[in-house]
């Protein structure tokens, strides 16, 4: 069976954080990884865009003034994900480790869907090509909160992605995804409250007690 085998038959666990910019997902991903380690799990912390050639092109595009066609974005995000899965995610899952990943294919569904591409098709194609997560924690905040938080850490570094109306569409795309593995968490509360909700989600969904 390839990397996309039935998640119940592979040794590791793939836990993904999703949300709009400023949702607090990166902070929560790091906290959760630390708690999993304290509980004795072998954890690999990773993120997308993955640091590779396609990932670098994506960052340049996001910083640059020239808009890039959504189809080109889609191709680059898929390319960095192939490398990410091959080099990091699939080997860790095969070793039986817990992968905590900050953004994964639902980012492509939501963001490139918000750019006008067919979100359903992206979702189906992603699920057939890449390992399906055991749990995706979608940290939901409203766009104004996300933008405030992003501004508080030094303003939008990537203006191509961080425009309010666009983020409203991204948020709507996330909200429209119907998958058993996707769980929405209220990210508007303080970090400790969000962390508690995440621990509860892991217990209920994966049987992991932290
Ligand atoms: P982000 O996690 O914000 O990285 P950083 O903290 O380094 O800025 O991701 C960068 C942007 O890329 C973010 O706005 C979401 C976007 N993105 C997509 O549009 N599609 C994708 O598939 C992924 C992984 C990210």
Relative helix content? 40-55%
Beta content comes to: 5-15%
Shape: globular
Question: What value does the Rg take, in angstroms?
Answer: 16 Å
Largest sheet descriptor:
5 strands, parallel
Question: Could you tell me the mean pLDDT?
Answer: 92
The number of helical runs is 8
What does this protein structure show overall?
The protein starts with 12 loop residues before the first strand and ends with a helix. It is 52% helix and 13% strand. It has helices at residues 25-38, 53-63, 70-94, 105-114, 119-129, 143-152, 164-176, 191-206; strands at 13-18, 43-47, 98-102, 135-140, 182-186. A 5-stranded parallel β-sheet has the order 2-3-1-4-5, sandwiched between helices. With 210 residues, it is of the alpha/beta class. The radius of gyration is 16 Å and the shape is globular. Helix 4 (105-114) packs antiparallel against helix 5. The mean pLDDT is 92. The site of thymidine-5'-diphosphate has 13 residues, from helix 4.
């Amino acid at each position: 069976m390839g990397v996309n085998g039935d998640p119940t038959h592979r040794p590791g666990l793939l836990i993904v954080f999703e949300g709009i910019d400023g949702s607090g997902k990166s902070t929560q991903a790091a906290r959760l990884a630390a708690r999993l380690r304290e509980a004795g799990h072998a954890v690999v912390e990773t993120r997308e865009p993955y640091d590779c050639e396609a990932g670098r092109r994506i960052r340049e595009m996001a910083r640059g003034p020239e808009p890039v066609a959504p189809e080109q974005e889609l191709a680059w995000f898929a390319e960095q994900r192939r490398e990410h899965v091959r080099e990091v995610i699939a080997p860790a899952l095969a070793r039986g480790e817990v992968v905590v990943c900050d953004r994964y294919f639902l980012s492509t569904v939501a963001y490139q869907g918000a750019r006008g591409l067919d979100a359903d098709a992206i979702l189906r194609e992603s699920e057939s090509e890449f390992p399906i997560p055991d749990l995706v924690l979608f940290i939901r905040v409203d766009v104004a909160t996300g933008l405030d938080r992003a501004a508080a850490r030094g303003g939008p570094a990537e203006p191509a992605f961080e425009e309010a109306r666009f983020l409203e569409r991204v948020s709507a795309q996330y909200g429209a995804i119907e998958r058993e593995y996707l769980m929405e968490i209220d990210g508007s509360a303080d970090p400790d409250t969000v962390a508690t909700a995440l621990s509860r989600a892991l217990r209920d969904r994966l049987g992991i007690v932290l």
